[in-house]
DNA sequence: GCCGTTTTCGGCCCGACTGTTTTCAGTCG
């Protein structure tokens, strides 16, 4: 029974939800959530690790019981403890946790009194007024619950980073413009540059913070004010993006910034380190007893704990603290390290600009090279190239390289991987190109075995350099296709094929966790925009975010090398 | 359920806001 890591993580999270409602020891609940997170962040399939006989208790947050649980889940596809809990509690009860204002205690109350186990039943007792029989349920809460039921029906929504960005930056400048504001920072997962954000957390330092709060809730895009307190207020914007504003004094800026940036797991880790030293860290500072010993800057807090500064993108408790202690933190790649872009299209297929327009835009960015990688013939909707048209384009690129000074255009293709794993164009033409990207564009629903065999065969083609958008996932729309990534990593390593971080903001594929694994395996990464027009060359920023979250350094990235180095690396 | 240069038992990060309360539980981040 092949279960992916995220399915195993789901089982642990479900377990945590049900235990929580049941009123189990909250630390046990946390243990399951921690384990789920460890599993999710692993980047290597647990199934493989178990098959290799690894001692799973070596993993953080996994002890003997959970190690046994993982083995059971992999062997049987099920977790008996979860099945038993499901017997005790009706299906759907955990869905109620998604309702704002409802936590385990209130759900328990609702279930004990009314046997409620669905959103519909909840709405019924709320609307009829029966719900007021329960202690602690007043009109405000009931109104919130009813609203929550409506919302839950379209729940789980996170905003893509690129969609949240204009709102975040708009608010940043709106707040910065206010008189008396000293500092504004967008914290939370936005600052960690996650591919999606659940909400925006904004931190301000201001002399007159009450006036800032008033100014904040008056922002033109605010639809609703959810709460408004002296240090913290929450609004919903017209696009349903939630924004929290928090204000602190200047001397607390660093600790507040650190706290609100998260991640939660990272915070817990460093707070524990403080506890070990007899200190306490909260959003106001680092304290020894009542005495403040730090907190004005983040650097100072890390230093107090004997750590170096940890970049926000790394703060996921994926080993960054340990790496820091071992002086092995990566020096993360930066936008200025990027020397070129190895995936883009021209109007010859489904792009919207000429090669020259793409090249001139890239030149203005200071790039040394680009690769034109139009589609191959199987992708008829994109007017994909046959051999003849590709050769014509190669000649055009030769002419352009003669006339254009200051940038080199590489001849490439984004060649379809056909269903049987063969390439859509013959080797005779592939071998004449500077760079060949292989990509899956159809038949997404093959079995894991078939899909993996298909891609592996393509990777073994001697002329393939990069696997483009390797898992095919589209954020919020399409899951990754079934692919045994451990196998893909193995073959990429053997065949010296690079993996792409496709910088399209809805792709960002491979993701951060896979990027980190690829690096550890010594597989090179191409961060590429897949641009279909000159403006989209700016997507590089999003790919870079993902790369940094994947611990990548300049040396790990193909297109952070000079043209001559790149050419050597592309020779197999 | 995890974990350990104090510990194999007894801890487990910490505070703000709301709504419902007469002093605080529940929820959230």
Could you please describe the fold and organization of this structure?
- The structure is a single chain.
- With 572 residues, the chain is of the alpha/beta class.
- It folds into four domains: 5-152, DNA polymerase, domain 1 (Orthogonal Bundle), CATH 1.10.150; 159-248, Beta Polymerase, domain 2 (2-Layer Sandwich), CATH 3.30.460; 262-325, Beta Polymerase, domain 3, CATH 3.30.210.10; 335-570, TIM Barrel, CATH 3.20.20.140.
- It has 23 helices and 17 strands.
- It has helices spanning 5-22, 26-40, 46-51, 64-76, 80-88, 104-114, 119-128, 139-152, 161-176, 188-191, 209-217, 253-261, 264-276, 298-304, 320-325, 355-364, 387-403, 427-430, 448-459, 485-495, 512-520, 540-549, 563-570, and strands spanning 159-160, 181-186, 196-197, 199-206, 222-228, 232-237, 242-248, 280-282, 285-288, 291-294, 340-341, 369-375, 408-416, 435-439, 466-467, 498-502, 525-528.
- Strands 11-12-13-14-15-16-17 form a seven-stranded parallel β-sheet. It has a five-stranded mixed β-sheet with strand order 2-4-7-6-5, sandwiched between helices.
- α1 packs antiparallel against α2 (26-40), α1 (5-22) runs parallel beside α5 (80-88) and α21 (512-520) crosses α22 (540-549).
- The protein starts with a helix and ends with a helix.
- The mean pLDDT is 89.
